[in-house]
Structures are given as C-alpha cells and as structure tokens.
Design a protein that fits this description.
The chain contains 17 helices and 24 strands. By secondary structure, the protein is α+β, with helices and mostly antiparallel strands. The strands form five sheets. Strands 1, 2, 9, 10, 11, 12, 13, 14, 15, 19, 20, 21 and 22 form a 13-stranded mixed β-sheet that branches. It starts with a helix and ends with a strand.
C-alpha cells in the first residue's frame, strides 16, 4: 500500500480500533537488571497509568499494534534527536551535528559516557547497526520506515562520531532521526527467530531511555527510572502501566483508584471524564491537541467544484470556530494545513502574498464578494443560482458521532450561504474505498494524520493525486512551494514557504481544515513539570517525563 494512502487509513484505525485489540497471553517476565547505584531504602514514587492494548513487540523498529507498545518504546529507547513540545527536533543521543553545504551529509557527535540499561557503552556502532537492520533484506517492520532509510549511507568515524549521507536533501531528516536506537551487542537476541516471530529482545528490551523495564505480565508492565540516564535520573521512581482493553476500562480503573492517569481519545464523552475527576478531586484533565486534522475535502475535479472561485466562496462560507462550538466536539478549530501548535505554523499576518501592498496584507475578501466573483447569485428563495442552475452538492462522511455533528453543522452553514447540501453517512472503510479512492464525491469530511514533520506534500501535491491527495488539488505554484519547503533546512524559510502555500491553498479554495482532534490526559493535579504539547504521537506525552514529579 502506498505510504500516503496508509497514512489516510491510519485515521480509521486510530478512531476506535484500539478497543478491539486482543490481549496476548504471555507469562510474567522478571527482568533482573542490576541497579547497584540506587541507594537502599530511598523513597519511591510510583506513577500508575492505564494504557490501551497489550504489548507483544517492544521495539522501535516494529509496527506498533497497540498504544502500550508505543508508550513502552518511547520510555525505554532514545534517538539521535528528539522532538520539543512544538514538534521541532533537538539533540538527544547526539549532542550536536553539522551538515554539508549540499545538505546531504550529517556528522553527528554523540554524547560521551552514555550507557545501555545493561551497563554496556553506547557508541556509533549502535547507530550503524540500527540503520543497517532497517535496510536489511529480511526486515519485516513498517514499509514506510524502510522507505525512509532507503539509499541512506552510514559511516562510523570513531566511537562518538557517525556520518549519515542522504540520497537527496530532506528537511524532515532530523525528525526521522528521533528513531529509537538498538544495542548492537545484543544483536543475537534481536535476530533470533524467523519471519514475524517475536524475538527475545522484544520482550526484554534494553535501551538508553529514561526508564528500564523490570517486569512484564499479561496485565501490566513495571519500569524503574534509569539512574544512569544522560539527562539525569527521572524524579518518579517507578512507572506501572496497566493494559486496558477499552477506554471504558481505563475510566473504571481511574474512578476505582486503581490507576492515576490515562490518555483518552476525543470520542470519550466529556461528561464521563468530568465525572471521574469530580469523584477523585486529586485528579485533573488536560486537553492536548493532536497533529491530526479533520478536513472538508472539495473534489477539485468534479462539477462546479472545478472552478476555484466557487471553491473559495464555499470555503469562506465555513466558520470553523462556530462549527466546532456548535457541534460540542472536543476539537480545536482549524487554522491551516500546518497545525497552529507546530514550530512550522505561520500566522496569517506573518507572511505577505506577492499581491500585498507595501502597506501590509490586504484584507481577505468576504464570502459575498467571493460568491459574486464566482457569478453565483441568490434567487427569490435565497438559493445560489448560476446559469439557471442551483448549487446542490453531496457531503459524505463516516458515522462517528463527533464527525457527524460537524457534518450536520456544515450542512446548516452552507444552507445559510444558499447552497443545498445532502448529507450521506457510511462506514469509514466504505468512505475510503467507494468515495475518496475513486473520486466519486463532491464534498467529504474525513480525517488526515499529519506526519511528525508537518510536510503537506503527501496530502496536497499534484503527484499525490490518486494517493493521499484525495481532493485532486493541483496547482504549479503550490507544488513549487511544497517542493522548496521539504528540502530547505532553514526553519524560518520553511515556515514562510508553508505560509505562502497556505495563502495559495485558501485563494484557490483547495479544501478546508475544519478542526484538529484532541486527546484528554487525566493525571494527578500535583503532577509538576508536565506541560501541554502538540501530540505528534500519543506517546509523545512522555517526552519530558524526566521533569515530572509528584508534588505533595
């Protein structure tokens, strides 16, 4: 399956499929790492969280089938880089790097004195081994991961210096470098078995991250803070992750006091979360914005929507703030193809179009002016008419309640604008197969999973029509902006290019980003050091866990 379409389909599975995961029965594993540097009798702080699914493979190179696998991987492993709260890459196992003028070769200087959880030294050979595993012919991990490292060359200069040469410039490479690294000295444990068999290492993982696994059972995992962690020993001594089969079970465990935290998707009713935090006053709920998007797709190659002026008028008739508020969905109103919490998001006033006067950005045209420019007039009944024909469209979406509520709000907003829209709902898989893939639709309200680097290329570039670009949007100027942005290593330049792309996107009425879904993190009120962040992945809530502490 092409990576772009795989990204599209991810949204289907994310919204509810985790509740259908089967728990895999495994015997309890006691993992006896020595921790001689932990003082006997020292105070212990235990943090208990309910996570979805049961882990089978705890490995950064594996396809994570459950949130539990992703969470454990994030806590146990580290990469050359890591992401800040706004998604920008920063040093992790690499303390610094240089890039050649041709933007192809990165020289990473690794942190000295870093050790694996078993005490072995971390060095450049581990970097080379990890990338080599992905590039091996027998690699059975995610195809998208293999594609990201195809053609990449790795050269070990010395124990703390590794050179990585890319086949072509890639602005997202430092985000790719967040990939968790594997210990070369334990290669036998990782390479044992055949095909998709679980390797011994996948059940007894060894990383360089802030926590090390001490036991794993059918129902939970226990992790101990890594007292040799290169960023300092995390204040919370022990983590207990309990494996839940559903969001309902997560809530039940919180209410019963069996756990103190859980990350909940946006389809969990706000009243249920409020009820839990009211019952346990020591807990609070923090809403976190994800980098996913709920998009109103305009089919740019169908009927009246082939006219950019008509699309622009339709887009201007959508009030995303009123739409989200009116639907009572726990989402953040849309503000462009790059999420507003991202380090690459440009505010509308930050970038001036080429047509802007020297005095500043021209005011955007109001919806009525755009309708007039598109030559759609209102008849006596208030309908939009052009050439004697009313503007009538069909809107398809899946039947998930929050999305249906947004779709119904869109129908009302378009009716106010004089456009008749018929709403059709269908199962998510049918929406993909019978409408989005085939282009057999006028309007479609569906989700898109933005990659960790918020490059819109897969969703909107002309070359991606028939893959991720389900709106069939095509514009040479927009293509050129995206192409330049995905090869530039200058953050300010990329931000400006994406701002110009967004302006072009709106000018041509390509589609409308309606909202960004959220997740709610229920956690102790006294959890100091926890700060909201852009959730590029649910596991990224742990990115600053070394700062967390339970206040008295």
């Amino acid at each position: 399956m092409p990576p772009a379409l795989s990204t599209l389909l991810t949204n289907i599975h994310r919204r509810g499929a985790l509740t259908a995961l089967l728990a895999v029965g495994v015997a309890t594993l006691a993992i006896g790492w020595l921790a001689a540097d932990e003082a006997a009798g020292s105070s212990t702080t235990v943090y208990r969280e309910a996570v979805l699914g049961t882990p089978t493979r705890i490995n950064p190179l594996a396809e994570h089938a459950t949130q539990a696998e992703a969470d454990l991987t994030a806590l146990i492993f580290s990469g050359l880089t890591r992401l800040r709260a706004d998604g920008a890459p920063e040093p992790d196992l690499a303390e610094r790097w240089e890039v050649t003028d041709d933007r192809l070769t990165y020289t990473f200087h690794l942190r000295p004195n870093v050790t694996w959880h078993d005490g072995a030294a971390f060095d450049a050979q581990d970097v080379a081994y990890t990338i080599g595993r992905i590039q091996a012919e027998d690699f059975n991990g995610p195809a998208a991961l293999k594609a990201e490292w195809e053609g990449v060359q790795v050269f070990v200069d010395d124990a703390l210096t590794v050179l990585i040469r890319l086949p072509e410039p890639a602005a997202d490479f430092l985000v790719r470098a967040t990939l968790g690294l594997l210990p070369e000295h334990l290669r036998e444990q990782m390479e044992a078995g055949q095909g998709f068999d679980t390797r011994p290492f996948d059940r007894e993982p060894v990383g360089t991250g802030p926590y090390r696994l001490t036991s794993l059972s059918d129902g939970s995992a226990r992790l101990r803070h890594n007292t040799s962690y290169f960023r300092g020993t995390p204040p919370i001594t022990e983590l207990v992750l309990r494996f839940a089969e559903s969001e309902a079970e997560q809530l039940d465990w919180i209410e019963a006091g069996e756990v103190d935290a859980a990350l909940l998707p946006d389809f969990v009713e706000a009243a249920a979360i409020e009820g839990v935090t009211a019952t346990r006053s020591s807990l609070t709920a923090t809403r976190l914005t994800t980098d996913a998007q709920t998009i109103l797709y305009f089919n740019n190659q169908r009927g009246p929507l082939t006219d950019a002026r008509t699309r622009a008028a339709l887009a201007a008739s959508v009030d995303t703030v009123a739409l989200v508020e009116g639907s009572a969905t726990p989402q953040v109103p849309g503000a462009g193809v790059v999420p507003p919490d991202s380090y690459l998001h440009a505010e509308p006033g930050d970038v001036l179009s080429e047509d802007a006067d020297a005095g500043g950005e021209p005011p955007p045209a109001d919806a009525e002016s755009l309708w007039a420019a598109a030559q759609w007039e209102r008849d006596a009944e208030g309908r939009r008419i052009r050439d004697g024909e009313p503007l009538t469209l069909e809107l398809v979406t899946n039947g998930e309640p929050a999305r249906t509520a947004l779709a119904e709000g869109l129908v009302r907003q378009f009716a106010e604008a004089g456009v008749t829209v018929e709403l059709v709902t269908a199962p998510a898989q049918r929406v993909v197969n019978e409408y989005l893939r085939t282009g057999n639709y006028d309007l479609a309200l569906f989700g898109w999973e933005t990659p960790p680097d918020p490059d819109p290329y897969a969703a909107w570039h002309t070359s991606q029509i028939g893959l991720g670009n389900v709106a069939a949007f095509s514009d040479p100027e927009a293509d050129a902006l995206m192409e330049a942005a995905r090869t530039s290593l200058d953050v300010a330049e990329r931000r400006e290019l994406y701002g110009l792309f967004q302006a072009r996107f709106e000018e041509l009425g390509a589609s409308v980003v309606i909202a960004y879904p959220t997740m709610t993190y229920v956690h102790p009120s006294g959890l100091a050091g926890f700060e909201p962040m852009l959730l590029v992945d649910p596991a990224s809530r742990f990115q600053d866990i070394t700062r967390w502490r339970i206040a008295d």
